[in-house]
Write a structure and sequence with these properties.
six-stranded antiparallel beta sheet; binds zinc ion; 6 strands; alpha+beta
Length: 163
């Protein structure tokens, strides 16, 4: 276990066990999904995660191209499509300090704060695994769930199919 300070969170993460869990996963949710909304997420992936978020997830042992789950949740007013998904980490949230004004790191989604960038993520401890869609992590307790939200354009030829 190793302690990390990210945004307003202090995380105790087993990086080795996290990496090993992702190695057991065949691939990301979206890569293995036949919904056109997931195909659009895959097409946008390289431009969706800010560099700071990529580096942070990699430091924590999370391959950011291998989300455990993602789904399209709806369109938003400016013509972007909103997605929510998550990564799992072996470990737990030790502390979340109260947010002091706006976060200087826009990819950190502080509880109760609407993210202003097109990407945000936050961390919560999950107990009581197994959790659906993450069999690679089922023997690990506790887990951190890193929830992300992203607003991205529709860039594939296949037609948007709702909701
Ligand atoms: Zn899907």
């Amino acid at each position: 276990m190793q302690m990390f300070e990210v945004g307003t969170w202090r995380l105790n993460v087993d990086v080795t066990a996290t990496e090993a869990s992702y190695a057991r996963m065949a691939g990301s949710h979206a890569d293995g999904c036949n919904l056109v909304s997931c195909a659009n997420f895959v097409a946008n992936r390289e431009d969706t995660f800010p560099e700071g978020a990529q580096r942070e997830l990699e430091t924590l042992g999370v391959p950011w191209r291998k989300e455990v789950y993602v789904s399209h949740t709806g369109g938003i007013a400016v013509g972007l499509y909103h997605y929510q998904g998550f990564f799992m980490l072996v470990g737990e949230v030790v502390e979340q300090r109260p947010a002091q004004g706006a976060s200087s790191e826009p990819f950190h989604w502080i509880a109760g704060q609407v993210p202003s960038a097109n990407y945000a993520h936050s961390f919560t401890t999950m107990r009581g695994v197994p959790y659906f869609a993450s069999p690679a992590f089922n023997n690990k307790v506790p887990l951190i769930r890193c929830t992300f939200t992203a607003s991205i354009p529709w860039i594939i030829d296949a037609e948007y199919a709702g909701p």
